Amino acid sequence: VMIFASFAVVSGAFLLSNFFLSLFNARRRTIAILKVMGYGRIDIFILLFTEGGIYVILSSLMGTFLGPQIAKMVLGFVEKAKEIFPTSFPSPVESMNFYVKPHTFLLTLILGSLVPLFILFILSLRASKLPVVEVLHEKMDDVEERSNTKPFWLFLIPSVMLILFIIFKDSYFLFLLINSILLILPFVIGGRISYLIFPTLSILFTALTLKIPIFEGSKLSEVAIYITRGGVYFISSILLVVGNTIFLKRLFEYSFSKFPSMILSWRLALSYVSRNRKRTGFLMVMFGVVIFGVVVTTIVPYNIVEFLDDKFKQGFLGYDFAIFVNPVKSFMGLKEVNWSDELKRSYFEKFDRVILLPIKIVDEKGKNRFTMAGFIDVKDEDPNVRIVGSMMGTDNLWDHFRMGENVCVAGAFSKDFSPFPGEEIELMIPMNFFQYSNPNLILGKFKIIGIYKPQSQMIPVEMLLPVSTLPENYRSGIVVYLGKLGKDVEAEKIKRAVMRDANFPLHITGEFTRIYRGLNLLANLGVRLLYFAMITGFSGLI
Question: Rounded to two decimals, what is the model's pTM?
Answer without folding.
Answer: 0.44
